[in-house]
Amino acid sequence: PVVSRALAAPPLGGLLFNMGGPGTLDDVEPFLVNLFSDRDIIELPMGALLQPLVARLIAKKRGPDVRRNYASIGGGSPQLALTRAQAAALQDHLVLSTGQRVVVEIAMRYWQPDTERALRRLADAGVSRVVTLTLYPHYSRATTGSSRREFERVLARPEWRHRFEVTHVESYPDHPLYLAAMTDTVRRALDGFPADRRDHVTLLFSAHGLPQKFIDEGDPYVEHTHRTVHGMLQRLGVRNPHVVAFQSRTGPVKWIGPGTEDVIKELGALGVRDVLMVPV
Questions:
Q1: pLDDT at residue 1 above 80?
Q2: Secondary structure, 3-state, the chain
Q3: pLDDT tier at 2 (50, 70, 90 boundaries)?
Q4: Are the C-beta atoms of 139 and 224 separated by less than 8 Å?
């Protein structure tokens, strides 16, 4: 009877926030337009009204280089396939651990499936309570914040208003299970170096960059990133040299540093030959 009541109850809905990426080379330019149109990511200097136009110009200019990058990894972003695998695993785990019906959907911020489509699928499944879970462990207004605002914008439409009870999971930079998973990955990678050089490998923790202005205005992203690195180093218990850097700077604004490319050059100039790149 308990199982029957659980199965008869409305399913719990999970909604995974992620960035999204072009699935094919033809998707690259429209994806870039969506990305550079978002003022939560970068405030282009010509103002909000002209930003979509400027975004199209940037996408047209950067498109060929970005297409070459995606061509080199198979012709598109693997993010959707990976996120779908995470969603399926999470759904199965929650069903087994709670005995409830659970439906987990994906909301990509700059590509498909978008927030509108995800909410439609949750509604069609009979979901009335939704827990959003960001797949960005470190909070920033440019990542989780932007996805959350898009979610609230869609949810404010008359057809969705008051449709769902919503809870948000917005960050987990030092959650023990997250740190354990990351630390295990680093430990296994370190074990791949020859034993006589392993203790001298430089750990280069590389996080995505962010305009310095966001940090100056109180964005916790850098502090969250350092909490993750600190937690990983504590669990690793090694004395290897390490450095934290930030990658993928773009646009005519000051970005947080040091830049990953600059750090790699500096390490090379110092004679460092063994580097373990750790994406955070």
A1: no
A2: CHHHHHHHCCCEEEEEEECCCCCCHHHHHHHHHHHHCCCCCCCCCCCCCCHHHHHHHHHHHHHHHHHHHHHCCCCCCCHHHHHHHHHHHHHHHHHHHHCCCEEEEEEECCCCCCHHHHHHHHHHCCCCEEEEEECCCCCCCCCHHHHHHHHHHHHCCCCCCCCCEEEEECCCCCCHHHHHHHHHHHHHHHCCCCCCCHHHCEEEEEEECCEHHHHHCCCCHHHHHHHHHHHHHHHHCCCCCEEEEEECCCCCCCECCCEHHHHHHHHHHCCCCCEEEEEC
A3: very low
A4: yes
Q: 226, 183 in Cβ contact below 8 A? A: no
| Contact yes or no for 150/109 (Cβ under 8 A) | yes
Q: Angle 34-37-40 (CA atoms, 0-180°, nearest 5)?
A: 110
Radius of gyration of the chain (CA): 21
The structure's pTM equals 0.90
pLDDT of 46 > 80? The answer is no
pLDDT tops 80 at residue 84: yes
To which residue do tokens 């063994």 refer? 274
Residue type, 228: T
Contact indicator for 122, 13 with CB cutoff of 8 Å: yes
Q: Which residue has the tokens 């009877």?
A: 1
Give the largest CA-CA distance in the chain. 69
Any idea which residue has 């350092």 for tokens? 226
How far is residue 2's CA from residue 121's CA, in Å, rounded to a whole number?
27
Q: What is the dihedral of CA 264, 209, 168, 160, to 10 degrees?
A: -130
Rounded-to-integer distance, Cα 98 and Cα 114, Å: 28
Q: What is the mean pLDDT of residues 239-267?
A: 92
In degrees rounded to 5, what are phi and psi of residue 70? -70, -35
Query: Which residues contact residue 220 at a Cβ distance below 8 angstroms, ignoring those fewer than 6 apart?
Result: 138, 139, 140, 171
